[in-house]
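Appendix B: a complete holo record

For completeness, this appendix reproduces one full record from the ligand-bound portion of the collection. The bound molecule is flavin-adenine dinucleotide. The inputs are the chain sequence and the ligand SMILES; the output is the full three-dimensional arrangement of the complex, encoded as structure tokens. No fields have been trimmed.
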Amino acid sequence: MASGDAAREARLRGDLEKIVGSAHVGGEECLARHCGPGGVLAGNIVAAPGSPGEVVELVKYAVSTGTPVVPFGGGTRLLEVCPPESRGFFLSTMRMAKVVELEVDNLSVTVEAGLSNTALQGELSTHGLFLPVCPDSPRSTLGGQAARNHSAWRRYRHGKIGDFILGASFVTPTGKLVKTGGKTVKNASGYDLAKLLAGSWGNFAVITGIIFRLLPLPEKLLLTTAEFSSVEDGLRTAAAILRHKTVLSSLNIFSSGSAGADATCGWNWTLALEGSAEAVASHQKFLSALLPGEFTVEDGSTAAAAAKYEAARDGLHSGRRATAVIDKRKIASLGPLLRLLLQQGIPFDGDLAAGVIEFALPSHAHGAAEFGALLAQRVAALQPGVHLLCDRIPPQPLLGRLSAGIDPAGIMFPNNLFRGGKGHGQGI
Ligand SMILES: Cc1cc2nc3c(=O)[nH]c(=O)nc-3n(C[C@H](O)[C@H](O)[C@H](O)COP(=O)(O)OP(=O)(O)OC[C@H]3O[C@@H](n4cnc5c(N)ncnc54)[C@H](O)[C@@H]3O)c2cc1C
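The structure of the chain with flavin-adenine dinucleotide bound, as generated:
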């Protein structure tokens, strides 16, 4: 490190320590704890404020010195949008991780942004409630999931996390603490500012707290898994199920990438029904008639079912991914595409109910090029029913323009790929 850089880093570290205390300013080792070892963010400084007031001070400091600030939570998706080199500092919400107020009868909860979704769901379940957007990783924070507008297992039924945000507190890129929204569904008569944070990827504000709308846990959650002897059989059955009105909350096909060349094994199919015991029982009976052969049915707690779902998607999250968006009327003709993925040993998760297939990409450039050509061929045969999204996060001009208006000094995560920076873009 050049001596000028070292002096700048020492000054920055000292200034941050004055705001949050020396015990709460870390470096590489702290990011590695969040983002995994060998993270590309080496040499950066992390400050962990303990209150919204300290966030305000940090952002004001960033503005007055022109220092970029990157908010982050669990770090599970940070590297996708963050370039390796950064001149500023990272702001971790790890010390702001409390449930502030749970109003069981009002079906609302106020949390600090650094609380993990897993911890929240644990507490809610003891009151028979849940936030219907499941955790993906135990490290994911509610602030990070809101900033990313996370959608999870059962998105077909429940949508995205932004649909459950009733209010928020956040610190603007000029260092103002703003509270917006409230604890009721009807609480904004003008522009719903809290919703602007959903999908803002750390660009518009540091989210410090969120008020979520909650739902009672379903009386019954039923998970069915089935194996089909052929891809076509499975797809035909899925298409038939989607045509009927049921209390379906997800319908997925998975492969861990271990299928044989004949593509007849190594993949399976899951379906979830949720609602009143009566509705689930009646729809289960109806669906049984559509399902061929043997299949297993489990009554699941939401946590156990979510864990099963994430386990089935293992292998998708270690490298580059791509996404195909499907017109649901085309489901029965997805056979050639899925067969290709199976033959190439590519792990995938097809959320057929929501109309999206995510798959891993080969990591070697040669394999990726070859595979890309094959994939393009198969997708072309299905056009216009399947639209392949690229594996790199494309810059979003509107987000960039909004950011420029909201953050004229350009201090809030200015090198974010979405804002035109050059990130890694492993796929979202
Ligand atoms: C195994 C696995 C499965 C997944 N499956 C899905 C899926 O099915 N569907 C889906 O939608 N996503 C999925 N994800 C992505 C998931 O939504 C994100 O990993 C998670 O929401 C990020 O939370 P985090 O706390 O780790 O955020 P980070 O990775 O720390 O940050 C993510 C982004 O949010 C910003 N940010 C974080 N906290 C704040 C804050 N307080 N204020 C402002 N900005 C902030 C950061 O700047 C960054 O841009 C999956 C991830 C994993 C690891």
